[in-house]
Amino acid sequence: MQIVYHKYGQLNSTNEKALQMVASGKAGEGMVLIADQQTQGRGAGQNLWESEPGKNLTFSIILEPVFMNPSRQFALTEMVSLALFDVVEKRLGCENLYVKWPNDLYYLDKKMAGILIQNRIKGDQLDFTVIGVGLNVNQKEFYSDAPNPGSMIHFSGKEESLPTLLEEILNGLDFYYEKLKTDIHSLKTIYLQRLYRIGEWAEYEDAAGRFTAKITGVDSFGRLLLTDRQGDLRVYGFKEIEYLT
Q1: For the whole model, what pTM was predicted?
Q2: Neighbours of 194 (CB within 10 A)
Q3: CA–CA gap between residue 229 and residue 222 (Å, rounded)
Q4: Which domains can be identified in the chain, with CATH numbers?
């Protein structure tokens, strides 16, 4: 994958800018849009992503995964989660690092990274994918009401080079992107190994109330699979289940 950088001092959102490029026909695979400051950076749903200017990585990458059926698009989430995990693991180790379904990167109980993936589908294939990444790196103080934000510097005690981190993440994305083309199932296996609470009994809450269950997998559509104490399989989409302590 050939990387082409588009660097900005300030943008509302790198994903928003990337989607505008897609819509205008100016996008191409491997374009990376990176901003020192995002004034309206988005997380999942309507959540905003707080990022101090010049302290963290906030970027989007454009891909053209036309080889993928839209029904398998969750594999893109697995790909990005694993690339981020690998880079942070090199600095902090893996003992307290995990992916919290569907795609948040946590160290201990602190959220260090979030991913926003937006796809354009044509017919039976993915036409364009815009992957937005926010990774907290050197920011020491957070002021928004987002729950449990954390940075790499909180745990390593040292500042990281943002260009070096970005290059490593993009190399990881390239590696896993090639795996998507040849062995999409291998990503699922690694993703589940990194998944928070996999195989552990824990408390959850859904629209019907609290229950005890263990995470047993994620299906090809990205839905979370849990088995409760009665042995029944429960299937949840995004925002349909809450993790309890």
Answers
A1: 0.92
A2: 19
A3: 23
A4: 4-194 (3.30.930.10), 201-243 (2.30.30)
3-class state of residue 18 by DSSP: helix
Provide the 3-class DSSP secondary structure of residue 171: helix
Three-state DSSP class for residue 16: helix
pLDDT-derived band at 43 (thresholds 50, 70, 90) equals low
Lookup result for tokens 């588009």: 6
201-206 and 125-135 as β-strands: parallel, antiparallel, unpaired?
Answer: unpaired
Asked if 125 and 68 touch (Cβ cutoff 8 Å), the reply is yes
Reference 126, options 170, 75, 84; nearest CA is 75
Residue 3 in tokens:
């990387």
Mean pLDDT rounded to a whole number for the chain: 93
Instruction: Outline where 97-160 has alpha helix (H).
Output: 152-156
- Each residue of 163-206: pLDDT tens digit? 999 999 999 999 999 999 999 899 999 999 999 999 999 999 99
Which residue's entry shows tokens 């901003």? 35
Do 195 and 215 contact (CB within 8 A), yes or no? yes
Helices (H) and strands (E) in the chain, counts: 5, 12
